[in-house]
Amino acid sequence: MRHYIYILKDPDTYDIKYVGETSDTLARLKGHIYLYKGTQKCKWTKNLLEDGKFPILEVIEETDIDKKSDRERYWIMFYEQQGYNLLNMKRGGVREGSGRKLKFNEPTKVIRVPVSLIPEIEARMAQMTK
Q1: In what order do the strands lie in the sheet with 56-64?
Q2: Residue-range domain boundaries for the chain
Q3: Which terminus of the chain is more exposed, N or C, with fewer CB under 10 A?
Q4: Span 46-89, pLDDT tens digits
């Protein structure tokens, strides 16, 4: 599976604000926009949204899954050495507790469901993982 090293840029200044890695750039951008965890990066994206703007996601490298952490760390150091004040909380690479959690012993698939059905689906999935 291919992975992508990407940067998030400010849409006004084009300053690089964040370096990350993903296998799905669209899903990752949505995550940056819609998931709020109170970090500096989240505050920055929230301020952009309040102004009707979005961060710019730009892929800077395509890499193999086994090299993704090293390449992410490389690019974080590269941009820091260029003088960018990145909003990354960590210096890249695999972090404990990050990534998708394995609950099932088989591949999973993202699907769209009506919001009203989410509690029922989550309850059923909880029963399956017991």
Answers
A1: 16-22, 2-9, 56-64
A2: 2-97
A3: C
A4: 999 999 999 999 999 999 988 999 999 999 999 999 999 999 98
